[in-house]
Design goal:
The structure is a single chain. The chain is of the alpha/beta class and 310 residues long. The protein has 2 domains: 3-223, Rossmann fold (3-Layer(aba) Sandwich), CATH 3.40.50; 229-283, Alpha-Beta Plaits, CATH 3.30.70. It is 32% helix and 27% strand. The protein is built from 11 helices and 15 strands. It has helices at residues 43-50, 72-75, 94-103, 113-123, 139-151, 169-184, 196-202, 220-223, 237-243, 263-272, 287-296; strands at residues 3-14, 17-23, 26-28, 32-36, 58-63, 66-68, 79-82, 157-161, 188-193, 205-210, 213-219, 229-233, 248-252, 255-259, 279-282. Strands 7-8-9-4-10-11 form a 6-stranded mixed β-sheet, with helices on both faces. Helix 3 crosses helix 4 and helix 4 crosses helix 5.
Length: 310
């Protein structure tokens, strides 16, 4: 797959503070890439550098094959973005805001503007909003309008910074389905978020930023692959240990972890020993466990790097 976002030794300093510290991103065509990290880890600063909104102190950025920021005028019309929450004119309606946004840049032919605006409003669930001014919108509605603005150009690459901020659970699910639909239609999605459960449902590839450093980058399926053990749920965990002596590696309440990647084989042994089993599953780490392990493995830093980074 062709490279869509590539960074090499990307650095951003603010005085003595390294907000971003030697980051090497690799985002490929067709990815839904989850860019993860705690608040203050440097995610937003990195995203702003990708789009030419902030100049890097060092390193290189390539976006859709163009060297940034030099190639910005050629590349950015092919990119849709929503960074740090949308900015709108509060006294205007959502449609009027989108009309101004489209007119201010190479969004597409003027003759198709009305159709494209109606299309993106429908996509984000704002088709029935009427002439209500944006100042009367809820936070979630404003976030939806910002996403509509990012979709006006029908982008090849969609760069989103916390796109579900302010949305209720139903809204989050709707945006997830929208992004999946866009991905199926050929859009590459780069999604910055701290919502691990949402990223786990949506993304194909993840990168983890910790105090400005990229500490992990891989396919989600690889990171959460089975560990080679089976999880047994039973009301009598002590009997599992007695029946499978030497294979039990952990007991947590009624949850028992047993070495062996064949749940049917484990179940047959336990049933044969008269042990009641209420549940069986392959053991695999959650994305939360993977991220916490990667972050905790980062050496402690005493030079102030990453503190208060964005």
């Amino acid at each position: 797959m062709a490279a869509v976002i590539t960074t090499r030794s990307l650095v951003k300093r603010y005085g003595r503070l390294r907000a971003v510290d030697g980051v090497d991103l690799d985002v490929r065509e067709g990815d839904i890439y989850g860019f993860l990290g705690a608040n203050g880890s440097g995610k937003t600063t990195t995203v702003r550098m990708l789009l030419g909104l902030v100049l890097p102190t060092g390193g290189e950025i390539e976006l859709l094959g163009g060297r940034m920021p030099r190639a910005g005028r050629r590349v950015l019309p092919r990119v849709g973005s929503l960074i740090e929450g949308p900015a709108h004119y509060g006294h205007l309606s959502g449609r009027e805001n989108l009309r101004l946004l489209d007119a201010s840049g190479p969004g597409g032919p003027r003759r198709t503007r009305r159709h494209r605006i109606e299309e993106v409003l429908e996509q984000v669930g704002l088709a029935g909003v009427g002439r209500r001014p944006v100042r009367a919108y809820s936070l979630g509605m404003r976030q939806r309008l910002g996403l509509a603005g990012a979709l006006l150009r029908r982008p090849e690459l969609l760069v989103l910074d916390e796109p579900t901020n302010g949305l209720d659970p139903q809204g989050i699910a709707e945006i997830r389905e929208l992004l999946l639909d866009l991905h199926r239609a050929g859009t590459t999605v780069f999604l910055s978020s701290h919502l691990l459960a949402e990223v786990e449902q949506l993304c194909t590839r993840v990168g983890v930023l910790d105090r400005g450093r990229l500490v992990l980058q891989d396919q989600l399926a690889t990171l959460t692959a089975p560990t080679g053990s089976t999880v047994v749920h039973t009301p009598v965990p002590h009997r599992v240990k007695a029946a499978l002596d030497g294979r039990v590696t952990a007991i947590d309440g009624e949850r028992v972890v047993v070495r062996g990647a064949d749940p049917a084989e484990v179940n047959a042994l336990l049933v044969g020993a008269g042990v009641p089993v209420t549940g069986l599953a392959l053991d695999r780490p959650s994305l939360e466990q993977v991220v916490l392990a990667a972050a905790s493995a980062t050496p402690d830093r005493v030079d102030g790097a990453g503190q208060d980074a964005r």
